[in-house]
Amino acid sequence: MLSTVQLTVNGQAHTLELDPRQSLLDVLRETLGLTGTKKGCNQGACGACTVLIDGKRMLSCLALGAMHDRASITTIEGVAQGERLHPLQAAFIEHEGFQCGYCTPGQIMSGLGCIAEGHARSPDEIRFWMSGNICRCGAYPGVVAAIADAAGRNQG
User: Fold this and answer.
1) Across all residues in the chain, what is the average pLDDT?
2) What is the pLDDT of residues 111-141, one digit of tens each?
3) What single string gives the DSSP state of each residue in 100-118?
């Protein structure tokens, strides 16, 4: 039996018929074609699938799509304003906060949540609150610097 779910994803309303067992990650990637959100471990351990749901960061591989009826979801595709990068995206480039880029969407989404939650006051605090996002390339110094930079811009 399918569930009818209304989602607003990156500002666009969608009414979907979903299998109640389908993860939000699969809804985003397979149903809506938003492949920027990555499927890393599919077990909630790597952070590659991080999105913002009603402004709070969440691992989309652990969330069932049908449980988020009427939610507002932001994926990496919804962060920039047209061709204008979000300050955190620009900071990732400036501080080389990525190498292969696979984890970058999840890192950016989690970084946005970290800043919004007020957990970006120091490099140690950023490292602690970003610890659920894994980077196999080891770009952590650039990630921390980018979040600190963007948090400073947002406070100014």
Assistant:
1) 96
2) 999 999 999 999 999 999 999 999 999 999 9
3) S-SSHHHHHHHHHHHHHTT
Instruction: Report helix, strand or coil for 57.
Output: strand
Q: What is the DSSP string of 126-140?
A: HHHHTTT---TT--H
Alpha carbons 59 and 69: distance in angstroms, whole number: 17
CATH number of 87-155: 1.10.150.120
Q: What is the CATH number of domain 3-78?
A: 3.10.20.30
| Ranges of each domain in the chain | 3-78, 87-155
Between CA 51 and CA 48 the distance in angstroms is 9
What does the alpha-carbon distance between residue 14 and residue 156 come to, in Å, rounded to a whole number?
A: 36
Assigned token pair, 86: 């979000």
Residue in this structure with the two tokens 């990732």, named with its chain if needed: 92
- Are 60 and 23 in contact by the 8 Å Cβ rule? The answer is yes
Tokens for 124, please give them. Answer: 């140690």
- The residue ranges of DSSP E strands in 70-155, in sequence order, are 71-74
Task: Give the separation between CA 147 and CA 123, rounded to whole angstroms.
Answer: 9
User: Using CA atoms, how far apart are residues 150 and 73, in angstroms rounded to an integer?
Assistant: 21
